[in-house]
């Protein structure tokens, strides 16, 4: 059985992502979470576009949290570490850590919770071909039933 603990994605802080003092605006961390999430899914063989077009499977953000530890600054290279923290039939939770590449300092942590929905906006179960991969990867599932 294969396992994946996390996936790292590099990002460089662009000028447009900073304030006048060269410090990253806080909302950009959520954008980087998305970048990390998409690249983790791609590394697992899931393509969001195909999930939507071929399987009518949309991954909708229901909750997002970010804790800022240290500031990121213009032109720094960062590493977005993304994990699938847990999953249920209709819900997938991702966790994130953002590190400064130069000194490996932890800059932010966070998590997002996503509901699997069809194009009609209604919750649906994650299709079996994706569930099977999560089971094979030994991604945790909570002991409670799915909402």
Task: Set down the secondary structure blueprint.
Elements: E1 7-12, H1 28-43, H2 48-55, E2 58-68, E3 77-87, E4 91-100, E5 105-117, H3 128-136
Textual characterization of the structure:
With 147 residues, the chain is an alpha+beta fold. The protein has one domain: Thiol Ester Dehydrase, Chain A, CATH 3.10.129. It contains three helices and five strands. Strands 1-3-4-5-2 form a five-stranded antiparallel β-sheet. Strand 4 and strand 5 form a beta hairpin. The longest helix has 16 residues, at 28-43. It is elongated.
The CATH topology comes to Thiol Ester Dehydrase, Chain A
Strands, total number: 5
Strand order of the largest sheet: 1-3-4-5-2
Gyration radius over CA: 16 Å
The largest sheet is: 5 strands, antiparallel
Tally of alpha and pi helices: 3
CATH architect. name: Roll
* Gross morphology: elongated
Give the helices and strands as they follow along the chain: EHHEEEEH
Helix content estimate: 10-25%
- Counting structural domains, the number is 1
Nearest-integer average pLDDT = 92
